[in-house]
Amino acid sequence: MKKKIISMGFTLILFLSLLVANATVSRASSDIPLVDGSYLTYDNESIGYATKISRGVDLLTGYSKVVRLGAGCIYAGGTTVAAHTVERVKIAVLVERIKGEGYSWEYYANWAKENNDSDRVSANRELKVDGGYYYRVRCTHSANDDVSSSLTDGIFIEEP
């Protein structure tokens, strides 16, 4: 009987600690502005991973990345990884910017790359950008006919 009471006590403590941890994370996340799927942050970098596709055997994963290199400069791009060597693997990179909450994302730059008879492709660039904006990267990933996408949060870039 004593072991059962101790076991129930530990279970209750574990349950309550999980509730407290979830409440803390939810409250912290709600303080950061969210615009069209991206949080507006002051982080140095953001990585977004490809959403799962419901069917497909060729596309394994993909990611988008944006990094603050300094005032007025970012590194942007992404990678697509196929599950095996495929006829064609592609990535399309789109860089967008926004002034802040209450505005909408606008086009800044884009590029694409394709590799044939490969299992991966990467497309990255260093860009000189205007300060005073948040920048994010959206990528479209494909391996043969399997397609998915990824999206980063926005990172603030200062004036040079």
Offer a quick outline of the entry.
The protein is α+β, with helices and mostly antiparallel strands. It contains 1 helix and 9 strands. Helix content is 18%, strand content 58%.
How would you characterize this protein structure?
This protein has 2 domains: 2-31; 35-157, Immunoglobulin-like. It has 1 helix and 9 strands, in the order αβββββββββ. It has one helix spanning 2-30; strands at 34-35, 38-41, 45-49, 59-70, 73-98, 106-128, 133-143, 146-151, 154-157. Strands 1, 2, 3, 4, 5, 6, 7, 8 and 9 form a 9-stranded mixed sheet that branches.
Brief descriptors of the model:
160 residues; Immunoglobulin-like; 2 domains; nine-stranded mixed β-sheet; 1 helix; 9 strands
What is the secondary structure topology, with strand pairs?
Elements (H helix, E strand, L loop, with lengths): L1 H29 L3 E2 L2 E4 L3 E5 L9 E12 L2 E26 L7 E23 L4 E11 L2 E6 L2 E4 L3
Parallel strand pairs: 2-9
Antiparallel strand pairs: 1-2, 3-4, 4-5, 5-6, 5-7, 7-8, 7-9
Strand content: over 45%
Order of helices and strands: HEEEEEEEEE
The biggest beta sheet reads:
9 strands, mixed
Structure class: alpha+beta
Oligomer: single chain
CATH class annotation of the largest domain: Mainly Beta
Rg computed from alpha carbons, rounded to a whole number of angstroms = 21 Å
Straight-line distance between termini: 69 Å
Q: What ranges have pLDDT less than 50 throughout 5 or more consecutive residues?
A: 18-28
CATH architecture of the largest domain: Sandwich
